[in-house]
């Protein structure tokens, strides 16, 4: 266990680790979303005669007519964009300063050659989550190699345990805020459906009133329904792309860690024949 803690100082150089208080982003995006809906889209110049209750003069005015649900959808859209930017820098920092494929190949070659000094130098140059995990595994390798009280199987188990523990310490940084993005994938569509239902309710109320005077109310209800449907689907689309993109990035890091961890354990196994 003591050897796994040696890798901890390397995290000081791992750079941006992500925003832990994601609710702050949500609050800021909520203010921005409703601000854009009310002050930008609801600007009097976007309506015929400068009256918000009147007919829209352009697309912004039409979107404003979607009602308060538009502000909620904009909140979700801005949130997923901000979280996407946050995840980009966090995962880029965790990935290290060297190309991941090159680092994996070089550190595997160094480990197979039992050149642990070179492997550690590569980790120090790489930095980030991958380097932290590899360094912890190498430290445990060197520690058990000098421990004559353990059998070979126990030593390999301790190397694997050190690798798994170091990986578990790094995974929260990689996966932080991803559940919120996944939630927005569903919330975007559900919010769109909610806004659509509200718009259709307004349309049916205008239709039940009858008469030509209610044609504007009818069209306003239909417009509200369609605007909310389109904007909600667009938000879910963006959230889906962001989630899948960064999930793929995290999977690549995880695969690289598993590959190197297997190499370290296999190297010890092949170079030591004692029972």
What does this structure look like?
It is a single chain. By secondary structure, the chain is mainly alpha-helical. Helix content is 78%, strand content 0%. The chain has 10 helices and no strands. The chain has helices at 2-6, 22-41, 59-64, 68-95, 100-112, 116-126, 128-145, 152-175, 178-209, 215-271. The chain is rod-shaped. The two termini are 23 Å apart.
What is the number of beta strands? 0
Biggest pleated sheet: none
Q: Into which percent range does the helicity of residues fall?
A: over 70%
Oligomer: single chain
Query: What is the straight-line distance between the termini?
Result: 23 Å
Mean pLDDT over the residues = 85
Q: Helix/strand-derived class? A: mainly alpha
Beta-strand share of residues: under 5%
The run of helices and strands is HHHHHHHHHH
Number of helices: 10
Overall radius of gyration = 28 Å
General shape: rod-shaped
Stretches with pLDDT under 50, minimum 5 residues? 1-13
């Amino acid at each position: 266990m003591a050897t796994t803690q040696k890798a901890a100082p390397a995290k000081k150089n791992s750079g941006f680790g992500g925003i832990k208080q994601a609710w702050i982003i949500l609050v800021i995006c909520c203010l921005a979303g409703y601000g854009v809906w009310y002050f930008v889209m609801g600007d009097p110049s976007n309506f015929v005669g400068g009256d918000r209750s009147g007919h829209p003069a352009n697309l912004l005015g039409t979107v404003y007519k979607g009602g308060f649900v538009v502000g909620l959808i904009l909140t979700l859209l801005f949130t997923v964009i901000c979280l996407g930017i946050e995840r980009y820098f966090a995962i880029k920092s965790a990935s290290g300063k060297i190309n991941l494929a090159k680092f994996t190949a070089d550190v595997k070659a160094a480990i197979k050659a039992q050149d642990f000094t070179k492997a550690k130098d590569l980790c120090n140059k790489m930095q980030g989550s991958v380097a932290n995990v590899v360094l912890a595994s190498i430290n445990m390798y060197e520690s058990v190699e000098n421990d004559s009280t353990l059998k070979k199987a126990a030593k390999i188990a301790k190397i694997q345990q050190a690798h798994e523990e170091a990986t578990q310490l790094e995974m929260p940084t990689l996966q932080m805020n991803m559940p919120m993005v996944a939630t927005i994938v569903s919330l975007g569509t559900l919010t769109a459906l909610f806004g659509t239902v509200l718009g259709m309710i307004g349309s049916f109320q205008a239709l039940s009133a009858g008469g030509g005077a209610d044609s504007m109310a009818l069209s306003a209800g239909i417009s509200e329904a369609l605007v909310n449907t389109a904007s909600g689907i667009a938000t879910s689309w963006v959230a889906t792309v962001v989630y899948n993109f960064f999930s793929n990035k995290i999977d690549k890091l995880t695969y690289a860690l598993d590959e190197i961890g297997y190499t370290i354990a296999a190297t010890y196994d092949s170079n030591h024949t004692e029972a």
